[in-house]
Amino acid sequence: MKVKKYIANTMPEAMNQIRKELGPDAVILNSREWTEKRLLGLHKKKRIEVVAALDPNPIENEKNTQQFKQEMVQPLPEGNTSTRPDLTVMKEIKQLKKMLQQQAFQSNHKFEPEYELVFQFLIDQEVDEAYAKQILNSVVESHKNMSEIPDEQSILYSVQAEMKKMLSNSSFNGITYDKRIVQFVGPTGVGKTTTLAKIAAHSMLKDGKKVAFITADTYRIAAIEQLKTYARILNVPLEVAYSIDDYKKAVRTFEAFDLILVDTAGRNYRNEKYLDELKKTIDFTDDLETYLVLSLTAKANDIKQIYDQFTPLSIKKVIFTKIDETNQYGSILNTALQGNADIAYLTDGQDVPDDLIEPSAKMISDLIVGRYTNE
User: Fold this and answer.
1) pTM for the complete prediction?
2) Of 324, 315, 223, 314, which Cα lies nearest the Cα of 264?
3) How many CA atoms lie within 13 A of 51 on its CB side?
4) Would you tell me how many other CB atoms lie within 10 Å of the CB of residue 67?
5) What is the pLDDT of residue 64?
6) What residue spans of 208-360 are helical by DSSP H?
7) Measured in Å, how far apart are the chain's first and last C-alpha atoms?
């Protein structure tokens, strides 16, 4: 195997040298970037060092290559990994591959490759591009006095700190009992009824509140039966509202209760008539607040459109469901930053009342940044 070291001003320049001398079958073994000082240290210039190799007999080594790949998918050994130099090499190759993939983005965003990798990760996490740029610009600014670009983990640590700083003005309050009536709205299939039951159990068991149910979801018989099942298990009274008169009567019936939770029909949020129909069934009084239930499995653009569509209902709080069914959490950050509503709860399963999570700025940043190591 022929191994050679190349030094260049940029990665593309180094790659051109490698292709010219070793050909297209060359393999990158290692790379690093450092700052070269010139003229008594008064001037600095960034340089790239790349170690490349060419195997003249690739077919003969195919068996060993396959064995090597199999070893790499095994769990990492505990303790010091210095005894496994192949792991370090593969990690650097993977990092270099990512850096090369990001070359096309650099002219647009003007981030150094190490920062560009993290920027693209945030985009992949469906963080809004404007927020991703804001985060990386702030991180780069905080690092401007460093003698060299920090490593990957340091950048991620700074990104997480910046996220928490941006979220410091957002609210993460769950149910506060400021209003006696809480209605749950949202598109189909997001888990409104199950979420309502979780909050009911939470209010009863943790806060000792007296809870009642009203369902205005009369489009699906199964929805009524589901809520009846939860009502029976929790020993909670339930009234069905087919009209606004039924709704007002149910509210009067539950006058002695601390909290009335209202389930509504899930409909196509793009249908503008949906909100009009809802207003014909629910009495939007000063004693009512509205929670919007969203599934994190939806696309970021869809989540934003849904939020905008429900804005006329004066959304007080947002609940994200199915966080265990996705690996992308950027929409939580986007909604917290761009909306006027609190992020009240996250849910990660069907168990009542266990799978109900009270979020925080740290938790949201942990969810997003924590995915980087698994990419």
Assistant:
1) 0.70
2) 223
3) 10
4) 10
5) 47
6) 221-234, 244-253, 273-281, 300-310, 330-338
7) 31
